[in-house]
Amino acid sequence: ALPNFVLLFADDLGFGDLGFAGHPTSLTPNLDRLAAHGLRFTDFYATSPVCSPSRASLLTGRYQTRSGIYPGVLYPGSKGGLPLNETTIAEVLKPLGYATAMMGKWHLGYGANGTYLPTRQGFDHYLGIPYSHDMGPCHNLTCFPPDVKCYGSCDVGTVTVPLMNGETITQQPVDFVNLEDSYSTFATEFIRSSAQKSQPFFLYYPSHHTHYPQFAGWKSVGRTLRGPFGDALLEFDSTVGNILHTLKETGVLNNTLVFFTADNGPELMRMSRGGNAGLLKCGKGTTYEGGMREPAIAYWSGVIKPGVTHSLSSTLDILPTFARLAGAPLPDVQLDGVDMIDILFNHGAGQRKAMFYYPVDPSEKYGVFAVRMGKYKAHYYTRGSTHSDPNPDKDCQIISLLKYHDPPLLYDLESDPSEHYSLSVK
Amino acid sequence: HPELVSVLQNISQLKDEFESSMQFGESEIGKGTDRNLEPCCNPQCSPKPECCHCGTTH
After folding, report:
1. Fewest 10 Å CB contacts: which of A85, A200, A250, A277?
2. A52 and B29 in contact by Cβ < 8 A?
3. Which residues of A387-413 are buried (b: 16+ CB within 10 A; e: fewer)?
4. Which of A197, A223, A152, A5 is nearest to A93 (CA)?
5. Is A115 on the interface with B (CB under 8 A)?
6. Contact in structure between A97 and A147 (CB atoms under 8 Å)
7. ipTM > 0.85?
8. Which one of A70, A77, A334 has the shortest CB-CB distance to B27?
């Protein structure tokens, strides 16, 4: 039988945020279980330190510069979106008979009459918010029950955030308190329906958690020591648990690859309401490790041997991996991803030789800001970011303007993952 | 540290090869925004954006 795929994608989640990563007050029992029984990646990268470009790369296996999802992110009224001639993972799998569904945060465009919605990019079913859930006024909305208003005002002067079912808006503004329950139900029904029909499936769940403003429903509110961020993370983790439970209950767990990672590093400007990059330098918006290196887990019960891999890998590699496992042809375009089969099944070194770090605003003039090859990383340019601003490390702050390095700053990420000690190459 | 010089040379070569093969697509985000494209559950309503309000029970 063709394997099923579940792709879990957290939002603004840092390298140090999860329980298995050592965070002392996060509560993530299901992700911890995935990590314990799956293959945990220590050197896994998103392609951008912000959201839309990172998601474009995840779904297409191509750097965002090729698809045009730069600079920055898409907005509710954006005219553009992920071009329809880009081939997504869903479109790779559909011709093989896969059922495809997505719930959560799209953020790859809305456009005139929903031109860029997931339903136009290979997903049979969609339930979610088509962009970030802070992209609409939220100061009057309830983020935690019984009636704790969302922290901050989010984006004002625009429409309130909609919930879409397919291409229809079913709620506006969205009800944050019950949103995750809707997602859990959606996922459960999709998996059950596909399993009953013995149809292979692809479920993509890009969560809104743990992006600002954090929210959670009755089952998670107040349950962690970490506060709002921890409660939101717990709610995400609970949905992961529900998905795993349903996979097991429907008898398809042993034929399903579950892959978990996140879009970019923590938004440190939110301080204790933002995430935590752990020992990595800086966070969202920067090309330091904290901006783009992410926790990642591949779990396939009875197929992938549990363990830890230090192989260099990226969200770019997910499309080629799923395609190879399903026996699907690759899109006839320049891909930047390579399949991770050797890593997943042999704990091997993998095919990826390098990772290129594009800033939030890539340009042909400046090119990539940094390159990782093996254990070494060279910074050609560095710059702080508002997203990482109040961090005590000045390099992360907005006052650290664009700086060219000649020779490049060179770090050995195996002995110095925090990028503290530049190696002398004068 | 001659070995580090060699590492940097290799990285720079990789970077050059990668960048010379990179074809930038037209920026989708650079196309700008149009307030009329913002999703509204009641597209004909007025005044926007306040009137875009549907189906929320909470």
Report:
1. A85
2. yes
3. bbbebebebbbeebeeeeeeebbbbbb
4. A5
5. no
6. no
7. yes
8. A70
